[in-house]
Each structure stands twice: as structure tokens, then as C-alpha cells.
Fold this protein.
Amino acid sequence: MRVLNYLELESRLDRSGIGTAADQQRAALATTDVSVLTSPWTGGSPPRAVGSALRGNGAFREYDVAHCNMIGPGTVAVARHAERTGTPLVLHAHVTREDFAESFRGSTHLAGPLGRYLRWFYSQADLVLCPSEYTKRILESYPVEAPIRPITNGVDTASLAGFEALREEYRDRFDLDGLVAFSVGNVFERKGLTTFCRLAQETDYEFAWFGPYDSGPQASEAVRRWTSNPPENVTFTGWVDDKRGAFAAGDVYLFPTKAENQGIAVLEAMACGKPVVLRDIPVFEEFYTHGHDCLKCETRAEFRAALDRLASDPDLRDRLGENATATAAEHSLERVGERLVDAYRAVGGRPDAGAGDEVTSD
């Protein structure tokens, strides 16, 4: 089976959760007999595809299933081509109006129109994939008029191998000491930025947020305020080249996010054996159990109490971390690969149309 795994604007999304999810899909498919293309365009780019079309050779490459991870005009063009040629189309719902709100300046106001667009966009698919049952319910409420199947984003444990060796280097680099509550990923208010900083003001622990943040006009007011004048015990590191250093330097993964479709960094923290403290939101109910592989909180007082418990009880940290590692193992890329192949077959992809783990972009 030859599958297009397409991420529009890939070079601009390499620091995003969507970019990580697409990378993990490709790594997962490398464990199967599926052959993967990463560009739909003849010649590898839209300008070359246009030239090819003008010469009568067609703008699109050949593949058995189109699997797209974004929602822009390039992806719409792939969807239209799939409809014309009868190629099965799988759209991956990484974006919802709910998780778009409180991301960038003005994003909350745009969430309503975005929801109407997403209803139309995802309804074009033969199958919509999404990271969780929670996201499936959200999409059904729009309503999206296409079959919807949840598949975990998984966790790439190989990308985290050897993280422990980086602990001293990264703690020294960012002047971190003692118990460090940390988060990893883009700095957004939706991900609990204000709660993160308020907790720092109310406690004596070190807090570190490893990940890029906007400082220009597109940045939200909350992001500009907190990153330009953070509490004394909060470090915003900006982009780090090696995410393993973040998971090495931190001690308690603190994620007071308000809305997620799954949260890849949570699984990465768990794969590293870190105790995890989460906001008690619906999406986490299907993956994690309070007191077993994480602590879940609703109020700032509960978050403070959770941090205090973990700071004073190393046995609890160890137990939660061990159980978290086992939970992360349930989201292996091998399992993701199997479920992706099942999805492609469900929409009519031919299981005998090629073999190998080749991934090509041109």
C-alpha cells in the first residue's frame, strides 16, 4: 500500500504538536509494510507540480490513500484531487475550535468561524482520525458528516533515549535547582500559562517552561505579560534543540491545560518516568487515572497541594513515575502503525499494492 502522509506547511510546523504527531505517524508506519510519500506534488513542490501539469504530466503523484494532517488550501487541493480520482481520503483532526481558542491573539474570536469551516472540511473525508474519544465527541457535535475513528498520537520513546545524561547540563544552562515543576511545548494561555505562573508565585519551587513563545503582535496578552515579566522562580527557556534536556532537567511535569485533544508531551513525560500533575479535564479521563499514573487537579489550591505532596514524598513520585511509564508503553508507535494500516484498509486502501518502509518527500 502506498500512502500519502501529508503535512501542509511542514517546515513551519516543526516546533508544533501537529508536526510531532505527523513525524510519529511516519515513524509508526515505518514499522509496517506501508510505503509512505510525504508530498503529493509531482516534483515535490506546488510550483513544480504546476509546471508538470502544464506539460500534461499531472500535478499529483500516485498513491493508494491520502492521509492529511492540516486544514489549509494545499490540503483542500489534495482532497479535491482525491474526490476526482476516487482515492480514499483520510483527514486527521488535530485542530478543533475548542483547542484553537486562547492560543494566539484573536484566536478566541476566530474559533466560531473556524468551527464552521472545520465542519465542512472534515466532512469531505472517507474517514476522520482524531487523537481521542473526547475529540470524536467534539467533532460529532459540529456535526462532522464522516466516520470518525480515534487513534492515539502515540509516543516516540526512541526520541527520548538517553535523556537522563542531560540532566546536569540543562539544569546548569537554565540555573535550575531543587524540585523543578516543568512543562514542555508552545507557551499558550490555553495550556494553563496563568495558572502555571500563579502557582509559582504561591510556592517556593522552581518552575520551568521549555518551549517557544511569541513576542510579536500575534502573541496573546497573557503570553506577552508573563514571558516579559515572569515571577522570580519561573524560567521560560524558549526553543530547546534537544527535548530530552527538558525532560531530564524537570522533576514534576505540571500541565494545567484547559483543553487538549490528547497532549503528546504528557505521554513523553510519562515515558521518562516523571510524576505528572494534570488539570482534570475530560480528555484525560480516557487515558490516565488519578493516584495511579498521575495526580489530577481542578483548582489552584489542589495544584499547590499536589506539588507539596510530591515534594515531600519521594516514594509517591517514584510510584507515579513507574506507573506512568507503563501507561506510556500502551501508546507505542508499533500499535499506532497497526491501527493506521487498519484505518487505510477500512477506506479501501489496497493491502497488496506495495511494500517496504520507504519514506519519500519528492
